[in-house]
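U., I forgot to send this yesterday:
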Amino acid sequence: MKISIYVDFLAKTFGKINFYIYFCSVKTNRVIDGIRKDISPESKQQIELSVAIANRIYEILEIKGMTQKDLAQRLGKTETEVSRWLSGTHNLTLSTICKISTALGEDIVTVPKS
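Result:
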């Protein structure tokens, strides 16, 4: 089985982010090195950004003494949906990020102004 097909299978099975985090943390061997090499720079960046956004939301919740349930109530969503968003494996839309930011009263993502 080609490594790239195996990578696709594992990514679909475990979710791209969990798959990437797992394979970045395991010891090096020939197969793992091949899998790491097959993850595109774009996928790596998307995963890192997704995790960073989820971590930022968790940070704000902690600072404000809020729970996922509190955030879900403010957004009119279920706690399960918010939990899925904060897993770091969900591809949040800009619209959703804006809604979360507004509900928390804090910036989640900032872009340098020129």
